[in-house]
């Protein structure tokens, strides 16, 4: 079974590319969705987050905006949060890959924004990076209503796009039309899984 890693900065188009894989019948592990599932009311990560950051959890409910503000202004807080969340995401990923093997899947896609930052490229056979010009990235994320200062802070805390492209086996450019990106992904899937 081929294990494919998908990464890219915020708003670069990971979810869009992942959807093409899913529609081709390839199981997709979504690290962001896993993080969110761990952080729902009384979710698995909540007791530990509450212990480390008492002011961002109330009645088992996490204030994501407050926690985001905290980790964007404090590198130590970001490391502490990641030390809580990443091992739980890793466990979920392992279970996902094991289940796909049992079902004899030909391939799986691991959609992980921090793939390189967490050394995840060592666990995959091929890394895809999605990339678009910075102006396109900013415009997309702004449409979600995130303040510009927050977007810039998030980008500054991720590995630079140029470095991700350099490390990737395949770069999918999403700055052109959606059709262009989707066609490139379809061709790639054909090459990977003849
Ligand atoms: C701080 C939290 C609660 C903010 O939640 P919020 O709903 O505002 O944002 P969301 O989770 O949708 O993330 C949006 C984007 O921000 C970026 N991002 C999130 N966490 C991080 C991080 N630790 N470092 C760099 N970029 C990050 C990713 O590109 C992500 O796609 C949340 O992002 C979180 O718990 N992050 C820590 C876990 C983590 O490292 N996640 C990254 C995926 S493994
Ligand atoms: N090739 C493309 N052409 C035009 N728009 C695109 C393309 N790819 C993605 N988009 C748009 O850009 C936005 C961000 O894309 P997407 O949600 O796939 O990014 P992401 O990398 O998963 O983001 P995040 O890291 O924040 O979760 C979405 O509104 C999507 O519709």
UniProtKB/TrEMBL annotation:
Matching Gene3D superfamilies: P-loop containing nucleotide triphosphate hydrolases
EC number: 2.7.1.24
Pfam families: CoaE
Keyword set, alphabetical order: ATP-binding, Coenzyme A biosynthesis, Cytoplasm, Kinase, Nucleotide-binding, Transferase
Catalytic reaction(s) noted: 3'-dephospho-CoA + ATP = ADP + CoA + H(+)
Annotated pathway: Cofactor biosynthesis; coenzyme A biosynthesis; CoA from (R)-pantothenate: step 5/5
One GO MF term attached to the UniProt entry: dephospho-CoA kinase activity
Alphabetized InterPro entries for the sequence: Depp_CoAkinase, P-loop_NTPase
Superkingdom of origin: Bacteria
Binding site for ATP: 11-16
Record localization: Cytoplasm
PROSITE patterns membership: DPCK (PS51219)
Biological role: Catalyzes the phosphorylation of the 3'-hydroxyl group of dephosphocoenzyme A to form coenzyme A.
Family under the similarity heading: Belongs to the CoaE family.
Protein name (record): Dephospho-CoA kinase
Organism expressing this protein natively: Acidiphilium iwatense
Gene name of the encoded protein: coaE
């Amino acid at each position: 079974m081929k294990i494919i890693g998908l990464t890219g900065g915020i708003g670069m188009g990971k979810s869009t590319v992942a959807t093409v894989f899913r529609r081709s019948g390839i199981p997709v592990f979504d690290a962001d969705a896993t993080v969110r599932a761990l952080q729902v009311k009384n979710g698995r990560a909540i007791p530990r987050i509450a212990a480390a950051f008492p002011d961002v959890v109330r009645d088992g409910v996490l204030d994501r905006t407050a926690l985001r503000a905290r980790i964007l202004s404090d590198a130590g807080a970001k490391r502490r949060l990641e030390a809580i969340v990443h091992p739980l995401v890793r466990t979920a990923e392992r279970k996902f890959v094991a289940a796909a093997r049992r079902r004899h899947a030909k391939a799986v896609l691991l959609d992980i924004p921090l793939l390189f930052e967490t050394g995840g490229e060592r666990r995959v056979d091929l890394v895809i990076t999605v990339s678009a010009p910075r102006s396109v990235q900013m415009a997309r994320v702004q449409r979600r209503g995130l303040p510009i200062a927050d977007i810039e802070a998030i980008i500054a805390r991720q590995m630079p796009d140029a470095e991700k492209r350099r490390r990737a086996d395949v770069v999918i450019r999403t700055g052109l039309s959606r059709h262009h990106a989707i066609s490139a992904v379809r061709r790639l899937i054909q090459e990977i899984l003849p």
